[in-house]
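Progress report, Aim 2. The chain analyzed during this reporting quarter is listed below.
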Amino acid sequence: QVQLVESGGGLVQAGGSLRLSCAASGRSFSTYRMGWFRQAPGKEREFVGTISSRWSDTDYADSVKGRFTISRDNAKNTVYLQMNSLKPEDTAVYSCAAGGRYSGSGSYYPQYWGQGTQVTVSS
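Predicted structure tokens for the chain:
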């Protein structure tokens, strides 16, 4: 069992930056693929990005590629989402995810989910 707690959300102006953190419980963090999803009001949850367990290979949604970066610190059981050049359309609840199945090209089906943190980007 893995518990995930996100932090770092808030209100930022367009063009600004935020860094989200996701702290995971458990001793097997380094073996889990990790990822981020987001859900905007009235929309379905969508894949943002993922990072592999062993080599920290990353994959991103086209909408955030070049602006968002996922990284992980296995010593701290934490995964990060650095968000730069934020746009109003990035406004959403961002959720951390762990484990599960990944088949490439954004097809990630996590096993564990965090509660989410709100990110609001004003124009």
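The first strand starts at residue 4 and ends at 7. The radius of gyration is 13 Å. These observations will guide the mutagenesis work planned for the next reporting period.
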